[in-house]
Amino acid sequence: MKYCVQQKDTQGPKVQFKESKQKSKSIVNDQLNKCVTDPKNDFSLRRSKTYNGPDSKYYQNTSEETRTSGKCQSNEFYIKDLNCFPEDINDMAKRIVKDTKNSPTKDLMLLALKIIEHVVNNQDTMKPSVNLSLYIIERDTRDTYVNMIINTIQLWFVKREKLLQPPRFFSYATFVLQMYKGMKQNKVLSNRMEKEAYSRKQTLLMLLFKICEHCLMPSKENTIEEIECLFNIVDSIGRDLEQEVPDTLKQLYVSIRDVMLTRDCSSSVKKTLLHLIELRASQWSLPSSAVHYYNSKTDI
């Protein structure tokens, strides 16, 4: 009897142990399957929502534009790019980049002023200046920096006769254009601007139009530098003007034709203006043969 009890006791735990092992294996397998199939438990690396890399939809759109027009450029900021700035801008920018959200309002406003003043006098720092500004704007949820940039460039245009004599004016125009293009191409900033009651995109677009008008003023000599500045802007934003403010674009092209037909301009100026007229007529995409002609030194 004792032997039977012992036999049962010894077998009991063995049977119990086997059942427990099977259950544990089953539970582990179920958990593994759940981890694989349940998207909530997927801990693989993911792209952030603001990532504009090669596998994102936004990047594919801009890369397609790059292949067709060659106008889109990446606006990536690198901390090493700050070395091109003077020490005061470099130090302030590093502090703000490190913690943009908690940076003092005064520092953000002062840096915006310093960047504009520096880039207008040093066009070779255009790219790092624009990339730094876009980087800060994307992270500055208070919009202090972007408001200071826009307010300042608008004020400077009003006072252009005093503040923006050539060649400063051309650097200024390039900075405004690159800021517009950069904010438009940046997915985060573009989405933010679409929801704004006060459209910064529209403000920059209309400022660029005013810069174009300035290049065509009757009282001006219409130098090739001014007309090339005009061309670079219209070539970049002509499609946007046509879609958003078509009457404004028509007004601009009336001025372009007037300059070409009624003023005593050099052949290079007339050729550039003719290029603009044909560019619009061909819906902003000229055939390669036409581009080659306008880029050549042949007179019209």
TrEMBL record:
Superkingdom, natural source: Eukaryota
A single GO cellular-component term on record: cytosol
Sequence ranges of Polar residues compositional bias: 50-67
Region span, Disordered: 39-67
Alphabetized GO MF terms: translation activator activity
GO biological process, alphabetically ordered: regulation of translational initiation
Protein name: MIF4G domain-containing protein A
